[in-house]
Structure formats: structure tokens, C-alpha cells
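Q: Please design a sequence for this.
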């Protein structure tokens, strides 16, 4: 099991879903100083209260990743609180729909801002602080299987995640001399509160959508957040050694495969 007793983490999108599961996992593995960040203040504060019941020092930092100054200030506030930040997880994302035929410039700009620009500048500030303080660090960007293509109704979302995938590898190359590792996880269709909201909002799904969707999957299940959280914990820990610049597909569908 990874040892996170010396880990000081910032997790965007930590108020629910995968971000929250990652926070739980890091705390279970020894992390006692952690900040979760997001746009929804009440949700974030309530999540922080629950996580503090473990005895860890958990703080919620309001931050809209679509606003670059807030992405940067998020890191600065965490460093001010804890003295340093050694781990960053960019899990927050916008998932608005749009195809190549109907995406508006405003929708494109919003998805790029939240899913690519914000994480880039959060990572930049995280790395700057680690270099200034002279310590090693590790970051994980939560990506998606859509980086390989994506459905037609996810055109701008796919583009934004593909941009972040490139940021992941480019930053890994640039920062390895400072002993800062950067990796990414391409998540498949995942069971989260956010996905439930998306299915109901965009696809007219009812209460039974999850069971129906899982019945159609090869393993009878969507991707589950605790499983991804375990991988992220490993990538952030010393157990993953010198691993950097890796983009890991976490899905039951194999990219590039064709029906047989």
C-alpha cells in the first residue's frame, strides 16, 4: 500500500465523485494535509467536514478552473496553509455537449478554459512552488478515453482533454530535471454523481439508467471511482518510482479495437 504520510495534496473537483474518492484514498494511506477545490462552495465545505472526521487537516478552497487567476491562487492558498504542496490532482472538468456541427464559440472557450487552461496554470504554479521550495512532487491529470477520438456529441470536450493529454507529457518532459513527475489517467465511462446529472440533463435518462448501462458493459459495470483512486494514489506515491509522462487507459474498451 502506498505511504502518503508526507504527502500534501491539492485535488480539484474534490467535492464529489472521483476527486472525493481520491481524497479518501490518500487520507486512508496516511495523508494528513489536503485541500480540495471546486466551484460549488456548499458541496465542497460539506465534503471537507466529512473528510476532517478522519483527523486529517482538510480545507476547501473555492476555485473555478475556468478562471486562470483562481487556478493559480488555489495553489498559493494551499501552500500558505500547509507550507508546501507535493501532490496535485486535476480532476475537475466541464462536460458540456456539442458536435462539430453545433458547438458555439462560447461553449468551446468554456470547455478549453476549464479542462485545459485552468489545469495547465494550476500545474504551472504547483511546479513553480515545488522548485522554489526545493522538493520533489507528483501530479496526475484526470483525462478521458475520448482523447483517442470521442463521440460526435463530445467534440469540444474531446479536444479539451486531448489538449490536457499533451500538456501532461510536455510537462513531464520539462519538469523531470526538477524531480517533478506528471502522469495522466484516461478514464472510461464512470459511475459518478456528475455523470448521473449529465445523463439526466443531456440524454433524458431516468432512475434506471445506470443499471441499464452497466448491463450492456463487458464486465457488467461502469468504471468505479475507488478503483481509479487507487491508481492515482499509486501514481502520486513513491511506489511508482520514476514513472512520468504516462497516459494510462482505465477502461474496459480497448482503444483502436474493432468488432470481431
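A: Design:
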Amino acid at each position: 500500500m502506498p505511504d502518503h504520510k508526507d504527502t500534501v495534496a491539492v485535488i480539484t473537483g474534490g467535492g464529489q465523485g472521483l476527486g472525493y474518492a481520491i481524497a479518501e484514498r490518500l487520507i486512508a494511506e496516511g495523508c494528513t494535509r489536503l485541500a480540495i477545490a471546486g466551484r460549488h462552495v456548499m458541496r465542497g465545505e460539506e465534503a471537507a467536514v466529512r473528510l476532517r472526521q478522519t483527523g486529517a487537516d482538510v480545507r476547501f478552497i473555492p476555485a473555478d478552473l475556468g478562471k486562470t487567476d483562481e487556478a493559480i491562487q488555489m495553489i498559493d492558498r494551499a501552500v500558505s496553509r500547509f507550507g508546501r504542496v507535493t501532490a496535485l490532482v486535476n480532476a475537475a472538468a466541464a462536460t458540456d455537449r456539442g458536435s462539430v456541427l453545433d458547438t458555439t464559440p462560447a461553449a468551446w472557450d468554456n470547455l478549453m478554459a476549464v479542462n485545459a487552461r485552468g489545469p495547465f496554470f494550476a500545474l504551472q504554479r504547483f511546479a513553480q512552488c515545488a522548485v522554489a521550495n526545493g522538493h520533489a512532487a507528483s501530479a496526475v491529470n484526470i483525462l478521458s478515453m475520448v482523447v483517442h477520438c470521442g463521440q460526435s456529441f463530445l467534440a469540444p470536450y474531446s479536444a479539451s482533454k486531448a489538449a490536457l493529454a499533451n500538456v501532461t507529457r510536455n510537462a513531464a518532459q520539462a519538469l523531470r530535471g526538477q524531480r517533478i513527475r506528471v502522469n495522466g489517467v484516461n478514464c472510461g465511462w464512470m459511475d459518478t454523481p456528475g455523470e448521473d446529472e449529465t445523463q439526466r440533463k443531456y440524454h433524458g435518462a431516468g432512475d434506471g439508467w445506470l443499471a441499464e448501462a452497466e448491463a450492456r458493459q463487458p464486465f457488467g459495470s461502469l468504471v468505479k471511482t475507488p478503483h481509479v483512486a487507487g491508481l492515482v494514489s499509486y501514481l502520486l506515491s513513491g511506489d511508482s518510482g520514476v514513472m512520468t509522462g504516462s497516459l494510462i487507459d482505465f477502461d474496459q474498451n480497448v482503444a483502436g479495437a474493432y468488432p470481431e
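Q: Thanks. Anything notable?
A: The longest strand covers residues 137-144. The helical segments are 17-28, 41-52, 68-82, 105-133, 155-175, 193-203, 209-215, 225-236.
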